Amino acid sequence: MRYLCMMKSTDENGQTPPAMYEAMAEYDRWGRENGVLIDSQGLLPSSAGAIVSLADGNIKAVDGPFTEAKELVGGYAIVEVRTHEEALELARRLMQIHVDNWPGFVGSVEIRQIAEY
Amino acid sequence: MGDDETTRAAIEAVWRLESTRLIAALVRVVRDVGLAEDVAQDAVVAALAQWPATGIPSNPGAWLMTTAKRRAVDEFRRRAKHDSAFAVLARELDEAIDTDPGAGIDHVEDDVLRLMFICCHPALTAEAQTTLTLKLVAGLSTREIARAYLAPESTVAQRVSRAKRTLAEAGAALEEPSGTERAERLQAVLGVVYLLFNEGYSATEGEDWMRPALCDEAVRLGRILTALVPDDPEVHGLSALMELQSSRLAARVDPDGTPVLLDAQDRRVWDAARIRRGQDALARADALLTAEPSVSVAAEPGPYVLQAAIADEHARAASVDATDWAAVAELYERLGRRTGSPVAELNRAVALGRAHGPAAGLALLDQLADLPALRGYHLLPSVRGDLLERVGRGDAAAAEFERAATMTSNERERQLLRRRADAARRRPPVG
Q: Which of A109, A112, B274, B339 is positioned for an S-S bond with B247, CB 3.0–4.6 A?
C-alpha cells in the first residue's frame, strides 16, 4: 500500500536550521535503503505557486503567496509500506527529526493512502 | 483498537522498518546468524513488555539495538561457563554498549549486504535461500512466509532452523567475500530475489496464479539493493525488471482469479508509478553501462537489463499491436546469446510471430522443438498452439494447447489452456 505524506507547517517557524537539512537527508537515505521511500521532494514557498479555483462556473487563478492558509504543504513523500502503522511510524519519525533539530517547530504530517486497484 | 493493541501494531511497524538493519548489524557484532536473530527477537519481546507503559522511544531502532546487544552479552556470559573465549566477547561487547549504546544501527549498508550474502550462501538450497531471505532480510515472520508459500508453518520453521545450522557449519557469518567472490555472491543474491519475485508472479504450483505479497517483497528487496550497490547496472536492471513486470499485477488476473494474458489485459490498469520507477531504474542501468570508463564502446547489458528493456517495450506500447515486436525480438535474440537460454529463444519466436507473421515464429519453433532443455516445458506447445491458431490451423492448435495443459502444474493455467483448446477447435479454418 502506498501513502502520500504531506509535511505541513506555518510560516511562523522561520528559517530552517542547517542541522535540519542534514537530518532530513539522513532520513531520506534511510528510507530509500529500506525500500519504503519511493519519492520525496521539498516545495518552494507558496509565493512561487498559484491556486486555480472553480466557483459558480467561473475558473479563477490567483498567484501565491497563500496568505490566508493557516498551514501550508512544504514537502511531500510517497512511501510504499505493508501496513498503515508503518506509514504512521514513518510520519512519527519525521516529526521526531523536527523535535531533535528544530526547537519550537509547529507542524504536522498528513498521511493519505493512495487509491490502487 | 485498545491502547495495548495500538502499541503492539506500532511495535510491529517498527520491527518491519528496523529488522533488516538490526539483524544485519547484530550478525556483524555477534558473528552468529542464529544468535543475532534470537537476541533481536528478545528485544522485540522486551519492547512489547515495556513500550505500552513507557511509550515508543524517540529512536526505537537504537533502543532495540541496545537491548539486543545486552541479551547477547548475557548469552556470551552463559556460554563463558563452558568456553572461556566467550568471556572476552562478553566483556568487549559490554564495554562497547556503554560507550555508544545505539551504535551500529546507522550506516549499515555493508552489514545489510553481508546479511544478503549470508542468506544466499552457496551451501544453502535455493528453497533455503529464499526462505531465509524473507525471514532475515525482509523481516517476515514464519507464519507470513508459510502463508506466502501456502506451506505449513512447521515446514517453514524447520527449513529456517536447518538453514541456520548449515550456515553455522559453513562459518558463513565470518566470511568477508571480496573481489570475484563478492561479484559471484552478488549475482546469487540477484538470482534469489528474482526467484522470489517469480514465485510470486507466476506461482509454479497450486491454486493461485500469483502471490502478490511475494512480488512486493521482492520489489522492495530490489530497491534496497539499488541503494546498497548503486554502481552495478544489473542491480538496477533487476529492480527495473521487477518494477515493470509487477506494474501489470492487477491486470494479470480477473476478479475470479483467472489469469489474463498480455493480449487481453486492460493496460489502463497497469500501475503507472511502478512503470515510471522501472523506467528510471533502467535509465540508470543504461547510464552506468555507457559511462564505463575502461571501455571505448558501451558495455554489453546483462540479462536483467535486457529483460527490463523487453518489459519496457511492453510498458510503453498502448496495445499489443502497437508494440515494437521487432525490437522485442532483437532484445530476446541478445538475451538468448548472452544466457544461452532456450526460453529466450522461445520468446523470440513469439515476438517474431508478431513482427513478421506466425509463419516466422513457427519456423524458429521447429528449430527449438528437439532441445532437451525445453522438453516438458508447457510454454513450448502453448506458444506453438498460439501461432498455429493464427495461421488458421485450429485443430492442430487445440492439440498443442491440450498438450500444454497436461504439462503445467498450475491449476489456473491448466484451466486457461483447456479453454484456449476449446476456442481453437471452434474456430473455422482460414483460407
A: B274
B86 and B26 share one domain: yes
Among B91, B106, B121, give the residue marking a domain's end: B106
- Give the C-alpha separation, B88 to B355, whole Å: 69
Tally of structural domains, chain B: 3
Nearest-CB residue to B13 (from A33, A78, A85): A85
B180 in any annotated domain: no
B345 and B422 part of one domain: no
B359 is in which domain, residue-wise? 324-368
- What cell was used for B408? 503445467
Chain A residues with CB under 8 Å of B219 CB are 35
Domain boundary residue among B106, B133, B164?
A: B106
CA angle A41, A26, B31 (to 5 degrees): 140
Q: Which domain holds residue A6?
A: 2-113
Asked if the Cβ–Cβ distance from A116 to B13 is below 8 Å, we say: no
> How many Cβ atoms are within 10 Å of B379's Cβ, its own excluded?
17
Kindly provide the ipTM of the predicted complex, given to two decimals.
Answer: 0.86
* Interchain CB distance below 8 Å, A85 and B20: no
- pLDDT surpasses 90 at B281: yes
Beta bridge partners of A52: A61
What residues form DSSP beta bridges with A51?
Answer: A62
Tell me: the pLDDT tens digits for B233-244?
999 999 999 999
Give the mutation candidate from B15, B16, B246 for the A interface (greatest A CB count, under 10 A).
Answer: B16
H or E stretch including A6? strand A2-9
Instruction: Tell me whether residue B139 is in a domain.
Output: no
Q: Is the pTM of this model over 0.90?
A: no
Q: Are strands A72-80 and A107-113 parallel, antiparallel or unpaired?
A: unpaired
Q: Are residues B335 and B406 in the same domain?
A: no
What does the pLDDT look like over A12-48, one tens digit per residue?
788 889 999 999 999 999 999 889 999 899 899 899 9
**CA-derived radius of gyration, chain A:** 16
**What does each C-alpha distance from B29 to B103, B111, B421 come to in angstroms?**
11, 10, 59
Q: pLDDT tens, B288-301? A: 999 866 655 567 89
Please give the Cα distance from B85 to B80 (Å, whole number). Answer: 7
Query: Has residue B40 been placed in a domain?
Result: yes
Of A46-55, B201-210, B389-398, the least confident = B201-210
Strands of B74-128, DSSP E: none
Residue B29: count other Cβ atoms within 10 Å of its Cβ.
Answer: 22
Mean pLDDT of chain B: 89
What's A92's domain CATH number?
A: 3.30.70.1060
* Residue A81: C-alpha distances to residues B16, B269, B275, B364 (Å): 9, 21, 18, 44
State residue A72 phi and psi, 5-degree precision: -120, 145
Q: What does the pLDDT read at residue B429?
A: 64
